[in-house]
Fold:
Amino acid sequence: MPGLQKMKDRRAVASWCFYDWANSAFPTVIGTFIFGTYFTKAIAETPEIGAAQWGWALGVAGVAVAVLSPIFGAIADQGGRRKPWLGGFTALCVLTTALLWYATPEASSVLWALTFVALASAAFEFTMVFYNAMLPEIAPESHVGRVSGWGWGLGYVGGLLALALCLVGFVQTDTPWFGLSKEDAENVRAVVLLVAVWYAVFSAPLFLFTPDRPSTGLSVPASIRAGLRELAQTIREVRQYGNILWFLVARMLYTDGLGTLFAFGGIYAAGTFGLPLGEVIMFGIALNVTAGLGAAGFAWLDDRIGAKPVIIVSLLALIGFGTALLVVESLAWFWGLGIALGIFVGPAQSASRSLMARLAPEAIRTEMFGLYAFSGKATGFLGPIALAAVTTATGSQRVGMGVIIVFFAVGLLLLLRVRES
Structure:
């Protein structure tokens, strides 16, 4: 590939992509398929109450991310370096994830589990502020879509392997690894330790081989003051870039739908279709396979025809397959439609990141990625909270999950106004 010859350091690019492999174990195992299901079925009073509690916890974390991520990003811009911020929040996510080991299957563990899930989720989202902002600086312009897609695709493979290890080593075995007992759900709780170690070990290449920007020499207090001034200026000036603003608002909504889907997919499968934990994991593995193939497969199309068409096709497919999943009763149809839906999850995410890299003027690209991070979580609390409220009011997970389709549809309509350069 001729474009790859322009990369100053292929190892730096590969290490950047590999961070997606490292961090994807967290949303896949903790947020979507294993720990969330374990919480609602073994810790919470009932699956419905557990789903609502889980939604409120993620909603609180989303509010914190929406408020603080642009502030942290602006301060980091003034200081220059991103790795210290990325490393600090990575360490916080790893630590709080490991502490979920103490969430035993009893009602007294509800507060402990929700507290550390919220902290770990917020830390995970903060890492993405600094990670995503590195993309335009390490990828040549002709390969921004491919590098973004490769990262997402590699992430889904990492999530898949982490799920497989959980299945083989801890959940679906008569003799869990390391002599763990099935009493007090030791074998299920052990997955949080696997995720913590996985994240810590496989994120190391980025810190070792991907270069960081040099420090500006500003002290921490000076960086904070300058960062806050820059953020205020960016918010004022972003109105001059109406096209980018439309994209940020559109992404704000459909990303909220994706985040809610990830958080409640496993819970929905267990609660509505009665899938035991082992089958939920198998469904997650199948979903990760198709999502990884979709992210990698659409990556070249992103660079060839543009990111916006890729996002539009992905959202239309997510709306269609998602609506069907809410009405089918057959478990076979649930499996088929769910696997088909997974193909379009990865492209919607990776193409959004590459579209932002193309739309943002070079002179203010980093600032724009700060707002991009804000758009990912500014309404991030609305999806989980809306789902929790609707589920509580109707007593139906199917009706509650319908909230996700609404976010996809409104985001798509707003995206149609965006002009891709």
Remarks:
- Residues 7-211+219-415 form a domain with the Growth Hormone; Chain: A; fold (CATH 1.20.1250.20).
- The chain has one domain: 7-211+219-415.
